[in-house]
User: Fold this.
Amino acid sequence: MCFPAVFAALGASATTAATLSTVASVAGTAFSAIGAMNQAQAAQDQANYNAAVADNNAKLAEYKAQDAQQRGELEAQKVQREAAQLRGAQRATMAARGLSLSEGTPLSLLEQTDYFSATDVATTRTNAGKEAWANRVQKANFETEAMSNRATASSISPLMAGATSLISSASKVADKWYTPSAGAAVNSGSSWSVSNGGGYGRFY
Assistant:
């Protein structure tokens, strides 16, 4: 918008029109800078929030990993107790029948019980370990996400965004007011014109 022409059309003098137009342009520049700062601050706040959420998710993933290991160990211990009880019952039954437990079928039966018990314990712990590992992979991903968001937040400077906007807007205002124009403006009470070759207006 050409502020001088607008103010002149409203009946303001050339000097007053120029002054009012300058004030309006400066105000617009200031508002643009404030808007840029607010936008940058909002982006920085969002990045910090995302980092905090990722941090919490990483902590939760670690908790799940530890819980999986604990549950796996408890289950393995349960399997061991049950196997021990079964082995004890087998020994008691075979001994009551007068069978030798150190040879033949009785020994083979006890060895099978020990083998399958050990296999079940190992499987239980392996499954728990896999679950814990999957959760720790998630934890690492969340930690990477948090680091990325913190880096993004650190790269944002609301003051710098405001300053950049201010400089850019000020440059445009300066170009508008100090660049010679080839048009003509009308000033209340006097003739206001510009030479054909371009230049600053002057009164006649």
